[in-house]
Amino acid sequence: MQTASLETSPVNHRGGQSSHLLLAKGQFGSQQLAITWVDCPPGSEQPAHEHDGKEQVYVIVRGSGTMTVGDDRREVLAGTLVFVPPGMGHSIRNDGPDMLVYVSATAPPFEPPELGDVFSFGRPS
Question: Is the model's pTM score more than 0.85?
Answer without folding.
Answer: yes
